[in-house]
């Protein structure tokens, strides 16, 4: 014989799996159940008193017995979500036990019917042990079926003894048949409705839980991506720090060795080399301070990348800008290069760290055009100049395309542009152009270039 849960899951595939357990309600909700059940009991007692006032004394149920039946049906609702199956069984016993002819009017009261309905509904929607639920529910349904059979047998006794329930019925069906069908349909709607609504609520709770889990998973993944992007950016900056220090220290070592060798023969040349050592040392200190501003956490990951054959992979610089433009063209974006320098060759002579930052910003801006714009042409403008704060260098990428549909990114690239600009005390402007297009402009400060004197 097929079990009821198997049949339901086959007929209603949207139901959650039987092994899923609904999370228990919060303590605040459990306390609210107690308060509402007590208030409901007071209402039921008031309704019963009104019923007694509308009933003849010889036909009325004794007041203590009526109140006891109502309490047995309603008080279990105080713990209906804490222990749903035991409370349903207690309510079922009270409902069946009070179904006699003397107390029939009590169980037929609206509050009593609603209380038992809530008990059945709560058991189906809140029971965590589904196997125990279906076993208990099967017992309850069998008991109610026996009750219906007894009611039908009673109607047969009426017919056998010649007693008629209705002297002159207005309907088409015989009284016994109508009574049997009416009892069957009422109980079917009553118990079936409670089970059906309970299953719907249980399924909705499962769907809500799935949505919460998915939302939390998305939030966790977004946080992981953000953390990964930050870590990758820090590692990249750490590699740049390694390269900057290595570049300056190597320069210092070469110049110091040359100064020692020529000191006796050419003191002037030795002094010039010493000045170069001083400049390199100051540049290393300044760039190191700027880079360390972002590296707030220690990271044990290897800081210097190596190729497959173990050789050192140097970081790119503005000297490789042509490769960047060529790569963009291979991806369908033609780049027009424009240079406006206050001093010829100024950008080519930028310090290693600043040159790398400028290269990375240019690459990210061009990549954004390829990914998020319909434009096939872009303009890359390089500028330099002097103001009251010293020398500056600027990169600007513009296009005249429209936003590409469904191409929104994570924002990590723009964040990387801003972080690199902040490292070099720069400013960034990113946004749409009028009438159409996009512009990315970053102006960085040059602190270690030979020509960094501010405009007087």
Task: For this entry, give a set of tags.
single chain; 456 residues; alpha+beta; 5-stranded mixed sheet; rod-shaped
Structure description:
By secondary structure, this protein is of the alpha+beta class. The termini are far apart. The protein is 59% helix and 9% strand. It has a five-stranded mixed sheet with strand order 1-2-3-5-4. The relative contact order is 0.06. The chain is rod-shaped, with a radius of gyration of 42 Å. α3 packs antiparallel against α4 (84-97) and α8 packs antiparallel against α9.
Measured as a percent range, the helix fraction is 55-70%
Element string (H = helix, E = strand): HHHHHHHHHHEHEEHEE
Q: What radius of gyration results from the CA coordinates? A: 42 Å
By DSSP (H or I, 4+ residues per run), the number of helices equals 12
Number of strands: 5
How much β-strand is present in the residues? 5-15%
User: Separation of termini?
Assistant: 98 Å
Shape: rod-shaped
Order of strands across the widest beta sheet?
Answer: 1-2-3-5-4
Taking the sheet with the most strands, its summary is: 5 strands, mixed
> What would the average pLDDT be, to the nearest integer?
79
* Poorly predicted runs of 5 or more residues: 296-312
Secondary structure topology:
Layout: H1 4-11, H2 27-53, H3 63-74, H4 84-97, H5 104-107, H6 110-126, H7 130-160, H8 175-262, H9 267-292, H10 321-330, E1 334-340, H11 352-372, E2 377-387, E3 390-399, H12 412-423, E4 427-432, E5 438-446
Parallel strand pairs: 1-2
Antiparallel strand pairs: 2-3, 3-5, 4-5
